Amino acid sequence: MGFVANGNTTPSNINITSGTFFPSVSLDQIRDFVRIDGAVTDVRLRQLVLEEMIDVNRLLASLVMKADKLSDLSSSTIDDKPDTDVLYFSAVSNGVAAKVVEKYAGYDATNSGVKKAEFMECSIDDYRRNKMWAIQQLKGENHSVVELI
């Protein structure tokens, strides 16, 4: 295990697949999109991505019977990618971001540390909301879910 002084990373070229229905996810793309530095090792980040892919795949299980691949359900392309692949990446990466912020929050108990933790709580909620919005879009559902209590 190496010591990371400045948090820089070198490309890992790790792609994680999840069967034939869901698109693969690149660890490097997640790291770039969520701005995760080298303080989170590839091994730890890979585990978080695996956990999120399992969760997102579970939440999208109803789509598996509708097509051979998620991209077959696409209604348009964005930057030469099926919109479904873009939304899947968004769901997984936002879920990973929430876990990273939650797991690697500082242990600073000073006033600035408490303010930073409060700011990060907002980020965690934002990341989770963005994950669920991407999943709802993939399922063709509205963003607002209202239940009677």
Topology readout:
Elements: E1 15-18, E2 22-26, H1 27-34, H2 42-59, E3 77-78, E4 81-82, H3 83-103, H4 111-139
Antiparallel strand pairs: 1-2, 3-4
Helix pairs in contact: 2-3, 3-4
Account of the 3D structure:
By secondary structure, the chain is mainly α. It has one domain (18-139). Helix content is 51%, strand content 9%. It has four helices and four strands; from the N terminus they run ββααββαα. A two-stranded antiparallel ribbon has the order 1-2. Strands 3-4 form a two-stranded antiparallel ribbon. A hairpin with a 2-residue loop joins β3 and β4. The protein is globular and about 40 Å long. The protein starts with 14 loop residues before the first strand and ends in a 10-residue tail after the last helix. Mean pLDDT is 84; it is low at 1-6 and 107-114.
